[in-house]
Design goal:
By secondary structure, the chain is an alpha/beta fold. The chain is 33% helix and 21% strand. The protein has a ten-stranded mixed beta sheet with strand order 9-7-5-2-10-1-11-15-19-20, sandwiched between helices. The structure holds inosinic acid and magnesium ion.
């Protein structure tokens, strides 16, 4: 069985938590795009783990794979592996596999990302992790791959080929070109340590599927940050939609069984770009404080707003969801009235689907339906029936509007705070 999970909004929908919950039933959990710009918070047995690269299923027995469609900073991975080891979670090569073709994030990618962002008149608000520049090199065929850093000679030769061009680019942007060759020894050492983890992800997954094993593909970021279909230019540099899991892992689309969308009961965005339902007021404050809406990777406060149906509809089209996991429902508690954006007003017309251009989306004025909130603390509720009537109505309304079944409901960050609807 092959299941793909993606974020249906702008990232931080709580994918980590849902993957962690589902991982118990899966033999393999695989990351297919993005890099350490992602941040997953997993809370298990009272411990909080903040992960950027290691797939969220790490706390179960599943095999973890990092696919060739990702970009990987080996220093960050090593840090994560040792953080996990310090917590008694030993991640051996039997547990984790990294594809030989995974693109490596080099120090110059981070330098270029930071320099470029600082010079933009209109900022994107990148995470400064070098993600975009690592993908530029993949497309430009100047990437260094996982298998390269595991082979000292090959790595040094490859870097020699690329270095002068990178030094010039950094100099031109006013940076220090010495960064290009600054960590060669560290990368060689990390490459040596990571060599036993190298694998062929596509082959492993296809063999597992043939054996009727269960494979979960874990998306990073969110649908509207997709490089092709997102709110350009305010997007990340990889494809975040479900189809990207097939391309990024090397699994044919005929193999896909389920596509689960993780969606918050409201919406958040970190970084710049349009967010029509954003609430720069007490409601936004409530969502941010109660929802702990601060970036896992950058610590930046997330922008918060009401549930946006037009964006959800687009997300359903882009991913072909077979079901949803609705997260952070508890965060809405104690707000007397809740709003759901069912359409936008743009140039005097009411539309129920986002316009293609980001500039137009930024001009959209949300049209809302109001529903009554609830005062009860629902963070301990374990069944649909245990929810206050208004919360049930909110879920039913969302389901009716989205025309996709909500399979899971999450009412808090802990492992036990999710139930099947
Ligand atoms: P980049 O991915 O660092 O290039 O950043 C591009 C945009 O994507 C910025 O607006 C980031 O805030 C956003 N972004 C990147 N990764 C995540 C994520 O995991 N969650 C939410 N936003 C993200
Ligand atoms: Mg996140």
């Amino acid at each position: 069985m092959f299941t793909i999970i993606t974020g249906a909004q702008f990232g931080d929908e709580g994918k980590g938590k849902i993957v962690d919950m589902m991982a118990e039933q899966y033999d393999i959990v695989a990351r297919f795009q993005g890099g350490d710009n992602a941040g997953h918070t997993v809370v298990a047995d009272g411990k909080t783990y903040k992960l950027h690269l290691v797939p969220s299923g790490v706390l179960f027995d599943s095999r973890l794979l990092i696919g060739p469609g990702t970009v990987m900073n080996p220093e960050i991975l090593m840090k994560e592996l040792s953080m996990l080891a310090d917590n008694g979670v030993k991640v051996t090569p039997a547990k984790l596999g990294i594809d030989a073709k995974t693109s490596i994030i080099m120090p110059y990618h981070i330098a270029l990302d930071t320099l470029r962002e600082s010079k933009r008149a209109v900022k994107i608000g990148t995470t400064n992790r070098g993600i975009g520049f690592a993908y530029i090199d993949k497309v430009g065929r100047d990437e260094i791959q996982m298998a390269d850093i595991a082979d000292k000679k090959r790595f040094v030769k490859r870097l020699e080929e690329i270095a002068p061009q990178k030094e010039n680019a950094i100099k031109e942007m006013g940076g220090d070109p010495n960064i290009v060759r600054s960590k060669i020894d560290e990368y060689i050492e990390t490459g040596r340590k990571l060599k036993p983890y190298i694998t062929d992800v596509s082959r492993e997954i296809n063999l597992a599927l043939k054996d009727e094993k269960k494979v979960l593909a874990e998306g990073a970021q969110g649908t509207h940050l997709d490089i092709i279909h997102g709110t350009q230019k305010f997007v990340t540099s990889s494809s975040t939609v479900a189809g990207s899991a097939c391309a990024g892992l090397g699994v044919g689309p005929t193999k896909v069984d389920n596509v689960i969308g993780v969606i918050k009961a409201y919406i958040t965005r970190v970084g710049e770009g349009p967010l029509p339902t954003e609430q720069k007021n007490d409601v936004g404050e409530h969502l941010r404080e109660k929802g702990g809406e601060f970036g896992t990777t950058t610590g930046r406060p997330r922008r918060c707003g009401w549930f946006d149906l037009p964006l959800a509809k687009k997300s359903i089209n882009l991913n072909g969801y077979t079901g949803f996991a609705l997260t952070k429902l508890d965060v809405l508690g104690r707000l007397p009235m809740l709003k759901i954006c069912t359409g936008y007003e743009l140039d005097g017309k009411i539309i129920d689907y986002p316009p293609e251009s980001s500039d137009d989306l930024a001009r959209c004025k949300p049209v809302y339906t109001e529903v009554k909130g609830w005062d009860e603390d629902i963070s301990g509720v374990e069944t649909l029936d245990g929810l206050p009537d208004n919360a049930k109505e909110y879920i039913e309304l969302l389901e009716k509007l989205m025309e996709v079944h909500i399979e899971y409901i999450s009412v808090g960050p802990g492992r036990k705070q999710t139930f099947i609807k």
